[in-house]
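User: Hi! I'm a student and our assignment asks us to look at how structure tokens line up with a sequence. Could you show me two examples?

Assistant: Happy to help. In each example below, the sequence comes first and the structure tokens follow. Example one:
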Amino acid sequence: MASASPELVVALRRTALRLREGVRYQWSNFAVCNCGNLAQTITDMDPQAIYAAAMERPGDWGEQAREYCPNSGLAMDDIVGRILELGFEPEDVRHLERLSHPHVLRRIPAERRPLKHTRREDTVLFMETWAELLEERLDDLGRERLARLEREMPAEEAAA
């Protein structure tokens, strides 16, 4: 399970908000799928740059995370590294892409399950639920940092 960090909580919430507000989403496109949208949030890279990076090496997001090498010099490893720095483990990347993390799924009401990993609304729910779970695991200093980060968010993001 991902390590709880204020930065990861904010990244998941910002990505869920972007998805809710209509940012491009297409599960079959490496750059605008579940992980692709999170990568956009974390790196500020545009979808074209993420897609180009993904084509440097074969594999979906889960495989890319499993093959991650911080010294490869590949742009995709830089992207995956940024995601892992926030607290994700390589397996969490696969879980986000497939909406399959058992700890997160247990918190989603039964009437909303099963989730479909290719559906925008389900991805938003999964990210928001994961962010809540991680926030609950923060210590007092982490909660203070999270509050600071949320205060620093642009007004349109903080209002959502």
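Example two works the same way, sequence first and then tokens:
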Amino acid sequence: MEVFIEPQAGTNSVTNLIREAEKYLNLNYYLIDDDEMLKAISERVEKKVNVRIIIDGHPYDSGGHIDLERLRQTGAQVNISPSRFDNEDVFDHAKYMYNEKRYIIGTMNLTKAAFQSNREYFIVGDERKVLKSLERIFESDWKGERAGDTDRKYLIVSPDSENRILAILTDSRKLFIETEELGNDKAILSALRSKGGKVRLILPSSVSESDLANAVELDKAGVKIKLMASEKLYMHAKMIDTGKFVFIGSQNFSDTSLLKNREVGIRIYKYGLKKIFKNTFKEDWKNASHITRSQRKEK
């Protein structure tokens, strides 16, 4: 298992996994529009690799999936996500792929921004239990069926992941969190509030008004919050460092993400890998800024 951090890592580790596929390659992503990714997928199809893609049909605020035709032009088989994840305000927000040997699970879409300007994390691994779990989820979604229970040691899967994310927050002594959205899940916000100063949390400076209002309330409760300037580094990551393990995935702290969407995340326990997240968070914390007095007054 290896950890990769964007934008430093670039695209090579992802295109390498695509290009090493000899029998099959399955991808489930919310967005795919990066030219390098599309080229690598096309090359695999030309090599007679069975490539299947599940994609969200109506990404938020896009007016429809403008890149669907480009995906089909690669020659891959493309399915819109199951209808229960493809309706108003519910999404297939997952971000994973796997071939016959290895998998990727992470926080990034396969977009240019993910590799050039975002803070993103992803894992490349070959553990058979994780591969089998991803296969079960993918095959079920491909057929439009229910995935049922999956491996519970490593993966955390939405829908219905609220209790597991909540357990991570409540059972941990200290929390270091990077997330794109603070969200509206009352149980999650309550858990963060109760931790107070034991939480350090980084959000993008471009958070919504409702997220900023919630951040100010948490700040008043003692939670240590900083905002990362989006022009410096867009905080798209979804990472929770508990000390005991690190969780990364596609889940935001919203009730839709935790209770309704298709989301996939993984827990990482290896000391050497945890240290990479810890050091990256330290650097991001140093480069982010506290909520200003004017921002507090506005809320």
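Here is something you could point out in your write-up. Residues 25 and 99 are 4 Å apart (CA to CA).
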